[in-house]
Amino acid sequence: MIYYKISCPIPTSQFLAIQFQVENPGETKLELQLPAWRAGRYQLANYAQNIRALKAWDKNQRILPLTKISKDRWTIDGQGQITVSYEYWAGKMDAGSAWADDQQVYFNLVNCCFEVIGQEQSPVEVRLDLPEFPVKMSTLRPNGKDVWIADNFEMLADSTILASKGLTNWNYQAGETVFQIWIQGEVHFEKDLFIKRFQDFSEKLIRDFGEFPEPEYHFIFQLLTYPHYHGVEHRKGTVITFGPAEKLTDAAEMEELLGISCHELYHAWNVCRIRPKELLPYDFSKEIYTKAGLILEGVTTYMGDLYLLKSGVYDLPTYLRHFEKLINREANSFGWKNHSILESSFDLWLDGYQPGIPDRKVNIYTHGALLNFCLDIMLLENGSSLSKVMRLMWERFGKPMDGYTLEHFKSIIQKESKMPNQIQEFFCRYVEGNEDVFQVLEEKLGILGLELTKTWSDDFLLHQFGVRTTPQRLITQIHPESSALQFLMIGDEVLNSEMLHPESIRIQVNRNGRLLGLTISKEKQPFFPIYQIAVKKESSLQIAWRT
Question: Homologous superfamily of 167-268 in CATH?
Answer without folding.
Answer: Neutral Protease Domain 2 (1.10.390.10)
